[in-house]
């Protein structure tokens, strides 16, 4: 066989092989990206959005740390008592700051709702309003954030 013809034949095979690898890589890479986009779009369609309602409370000054601690525990207990009383409330967690004499907030409330409409219903629910009175009478500051997750 002619050495020049063999060399040309080898070059053609090498070019075809490399091209097929590049083509396979392009198909694999772009196919994987396309598949990932489809999965993410499907996940967004099938995953219901929830509302996270986070509230921080700063207690008023009390005569003693014992009084402050008792009020903090009473507010926590009252908030947790809303579980099962309000249908729109899907999740509730209440945490007390580990430092009783902190300059920061004293209590953190985390609640989940299926929609902003459910959050609005919760806000005016009679059981919630009872706790609101207790909280307002014993706190000096409040900060709240509502977001979708």
Overview of the structural elements:
- The protein has helices at residues 3-46, 65-80, 116-124, 126-138; strands at 51-59, 91-96, 107-113, 139-148.
- The protein has 149 residues and is an alpha+beta fold.
- It has a four-stranded antiparallel sheet with strand order 2-3-1-4.
- The longest helix has 44 residues, at 3-46.
- It is globular, with a radius of gyration of 31 Å.
- The termini are far apart.
SSE layout and pairing:
Blueprint: H1 3-46, E1 51-59, H2 65-80, E2 91-96, E3 107-113, H3 116-124, H4 126-138, E4 139-148
Antiparallel strand pairs: 1-3, 1-4, 2-3
Helix pairs in contact: 2-4
Helix and strand content put the structural class at: alpha+beta
Distance between the termini: 70 Å
Overall shape: it is globular
Q: In the CATH hierarchy, what is the architecture of the largest domain at level 2?
A: 2-Layer Sandwich
Number of domains: 2
How many β-strand stretches? 4
Top-tier CATH class of the largest domain: Alpha Beta
Tally of helical runs: 4
CATH topology of the largest domain: Alpha-Beta Plaits
Order of helices and strands: HEHEEHHE
Mean pLDDT equals 82
Computed over alpha carbons, the radius of gyration is 31 Å
- Enumerate the spans where pLDDT stays under 50 for 5 or more consecutive residues: 19-27
The major pleated sheet works out as: 4 strands, antiparallel
């Amino acid at each position: 066989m002619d050495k020049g013809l063999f060399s040309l034949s080898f070059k053609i095979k090498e070019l075809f092989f490399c091209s097929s690898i590049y083509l396979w890589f392009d198909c694999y890479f772009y196919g994987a990206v396309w598949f990932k986009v489809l999965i993410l779009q499907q996940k967004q369609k099938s995953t219901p959005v929830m509302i996270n309602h986070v509230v921080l409370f700063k207690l008023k000054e009390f005569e003693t740390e014992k009084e402050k601690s008792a009020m903090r525990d009473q507010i926590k207990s009252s908030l947790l008592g809303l579980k099962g009383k309000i249908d729109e409330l899907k999740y509730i967690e209440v945490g007390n700051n580990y430092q009783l004499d902190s300059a920061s907030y004293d209590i953190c409330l985390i609640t989940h709702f299926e929609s902003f409409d459910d959050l609005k219903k919760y806000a005016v629910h009679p059981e919630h309003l009872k706790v609101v009175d207790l909280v307002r009478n014993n706190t000096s500051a409040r900060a709240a954030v509502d977001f979708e997750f």
